[in-house]
Amino acid sequence: MASLLKEQPSMSTLLAAYASLSAMAMLIRTILNEMIPKPVQKYIKSKLSDLISNYLSSNFTFIIEERWQAVYNETFRAIEVYLPTRIGPSTDKLLLGSNDHNNPTAPPKRNIPSDCKIIDEFEGITLEWTLHVRESDKYYIPDKKCYHLTCKKRVREMVEQRYFPHIVKMAQTILSKREKLNIYTYNQDRCRWESAVFKHPARFETLAMEPELKQFIMEDLDSFAARKDFFKNVGRAWKRGYLLFGPPGTGKSSLVAAIANYMSYNVYDLQFQSVRNDADLRRILISTTNRSILLIEDIDCSTKISQDHAKVKDDREKEGEDGKLGRTSPVDSGATLSGLLNFIDGLWSSCGNERIIIFTTNHKEKLDPALLRPGRMDVHIPMGYCTPAGFRKLATTYLGIKDDKLFGSIDDLIKNIEVTPAEVAQQLMVRSDDPKAALQCFTEFLNMKKVKVGEDVIQKEEPKDENEKDDGKQSRKHDESESGSIYLT
Predict the structure, then answer these.
(1) The pTM is what?
(2) Domain locations in the chain?
(3) Class of CATH domain 192-380
(4) Helix H segments across 36-124?
(5) What separation, in Å, do the N-terminal and C-terminal C-alpha atoms of the chain show?
C-alpha cells in the first residue's frame, strides 16, 4: 500500500500538467481561429450541436413566426384562435382583458402571455406550446412573436401532416361561430391594427331602405360567400367591392354595419389620408385577415389627395431648385390611388381571400374615373333620401306602429321633399314615447321644410325661356332615375 501511495503523482505535478494542457488547448484554439474562417467555424459548431442534440435529446421543436416572408403567417393566426380554447389546469399563467365597453361586467377574455406553456392532446400525443415575444428597441417596429411547439421526434411527421391541418380547421370553425365582432383601426405609430368590440345594432331588418334593394344586397352577399370555387375557376381573387354613394345621413355607415353583422365579418376602418406612402399602404392592407371588411369612408377626399400628389411633388421640387424650403420626404408623401387600385384588382389582390371592400362617398362625381372602371367596384349602391317605405320602416322601429291615418299625408310630403333617414329618425326619437304626438310633430317638421324649400326656389333665378325649363325638368328626371339604380360592373 505504501508503495502505491508513493507512485501517485503529487498535487504540484497535477497542477503543472493541467497548466500545460490548458496552454496547449489555448494555442490550438488560437491557431484554429486564425486558420479557419468564421463561416466554417459556425458550420462546424452547428453540426456538432445537432449531433449532440440528436443523441442526447428526443424532442423536436416547430417554430411558427408571426410573419411569413412578405405577409402575415396564416398558420400563426390559426394558432392564435385555437390555443386559447386549450387552456387548462396545467397552464401556469394567463393574460386577461376586455375591450367590450358595452358590457363591462362580462367575464374578461383569455389570452396567452409570453413564456406561458399550454399542453394539448392530439390522438394520444402530448404537445407543448410556448409563446415567445422579442421586444423591439424602436417604438415604430412591432415586437416579434413566434410560437414554439415541442413534441417527440418520432411523431414529427404526424404532427406536421395531421395536427397543423386540424388546428386550421378548428380555427375556421371557431371564427364561423363567433358571436362578437371587432372593428380595427390602424395605429401608425405602433405599426399595427388595434381592435375594439364591434356591437352595432344595425341589421337589414331595421334599415330604412327599399325592400328590393335590401333583398338584392343580401342575395349578392350570399352569392359571394358561396362562390369560392367560381372565383378560383375564373381566375379572380375572392373579393367583392361595394361603392356606397349618396348625401350625408342616408345610411351608408348603417349599411356597412348591417353587412358586417349579416356576414359575421370584422371591420378594418382605414383612414386613407394618414397613410404615409404606397409601401406603407401595401403592408397595412395585406395585414388584414380573411373574412373581413375593409372600409374606406369618404373616398372622394382620399382620391383628391392622390390626384394632387404629383402636383405637390413637382411644386416641392421646383421650390428646392429655387433655393426655398422645398423638401420631399418619402415618409409623408402620401399613398396614391394607383397603390390602392393595385390591391383591389392588381397583382397584390391575390393576398387574401373572402374579403369585402367598401368605399363610401358623398360625391360620386368627384371620384377618379379609374376607380369606377369595371372590375374595381363590383356593385354601385345609391343611398338616397327617405322614401315612404323607408319612413314606414322607421316608424315601426322607433314608434312601434305599422299604420296610422297620418301616414298618407306624410307619404305625400316625403315624395316631394328631400329628407334623409337620419333626419326622420331624429324627429321620431324626440317623442317616441307618444307615437301620435311624434307623428304630428314630424308632419309639422315636413311642412316647415316644404315652406323653406319653396322660399329657396323663389329666390333662385327663373329660367329665361321655356326650353330651359324643359331642360331642367329632364335633368331632374334623370337624376331621380339614376338615384334609384344599382350599378353592376
Answers:
(1) 0.71
(2) 59-177, 192-380, 388-488
(3) alpha beta
(4) 38-56, 74-82
(5) 105
